[in-house]
Amino acid sequence: xxxxxxxxxxxxxxxxxxxxxxxxxxxxxxxxxxxxxxxxxxxxxxxxxxxxxxxxxxxxxxxxxxxxxxxxxxxxxxxxxxxxxxxxxxxxxxxxxxxxxxxxxxxxxxxxxxxxxxxxxxxxxxxxxxxxxxxxxxxxxxxxxxxxxxxxxxxxxxxxxxxxxxxxxxxxxxxxxxxxxxxxxxxxxxxx
Length: 192
Ligand SMILES: Nc1ncnc2c1ncn2[C@@H]1O[C@H](COP(=O)(O)OP(=O)(O)OP(=O)(O)O)[C@@H](O)[C@H]1O
Ligand SMILES: [Mg+2]
Prior knowledge:
The chain is α/β, with parallel strands linked by helices. The chain contains 8 helices and 4 strands. The chain has a domain at about 75-180. It has helices at about 10-20, 40-50, 70-80, 90-105, 110-120, 135-155, 170, 175-180; strands spanning about 30, 55-60, 155-160, 190. The chain has a 4-stranded parallel beta sheet with strand order 1-4-3-2, with helices on both faces. Helix 4 runs antiparallel to helix 5 and helix 5 crosses helix 6. The chain starts with 7 loop residues before the first helix and ends with a strand. Bound molecules: adenosine-5'-triphosphate and magnesium ion. The site of magnesium ion (MG) has 3 residues, from helix 2.
C-alpha cells in the first residue's frame, strides 16, 4: 500500500468521536464519497492507529442489502464477534454463540434464540415460533443492541458498515441505528 497522503483532519474527527463514545456518548459517523476517494483507507488508517486491545472493531458488509436480507451486515458482525468460521456446522455455531453470550453475561441468554436463527440454517427456532415476522425482527434488533451494549461496557466498539447504500441511510435510524447506537459507547462508522 502507498503512503497515506493527508486525511489528518478526518482522522482527528474519528479520534474525537471515539473519545466521546468512550465517555459514554455513542456516535454515528457517515463517511460518504465517490468510489475510490479513500473511505475504506481512512477506516484502515484509523484502525491501525488504535491499540487493538482497547477497542472491539467489527465490520459488516452491506453488499446485497435490501435485496436479500436486511441482516447481511449483522451476520458479518456476529461471525466476527463470536469467531464463527465458514466451515462451522450449525452445532458448532450454536455452541460458539452460547459460550460467547455466557462469557459476556449469563443474564443475556434470552437473546440466544434470535442469534441462533440469524446465524444457522436450522430453520425456525422453537422459542420464536409464536412470533409474527415484525415481532421477530424487533427481537433480532433488540438482541443486537443488547449484545453491543453489553460488549461495549467492557471496551468501546467500533462497528463499521461498509457499502451501506446511500438510500438506506435515512431509513436506518428507525431500525439498525436503533439496535446499534442507543445508549452505549458504540461509535458506528458508515461507509457508502
Ligand atoms: N489518503 C490517501 N493516501 C494514499 N492513498 C490513498 C489515500 N486514500 C485512498 N488511497 C488509496 O486509493 C485506493 C482507493 O481507496 P479506497 O479503497 O479507500 O476507496 P473507497 O472510497 O473505499 O472506494 P470504494 O467506494 O470503491 O469502496 C486504495 O488503494 C487506497 O490505498
Ligand atoms: Mg471502500
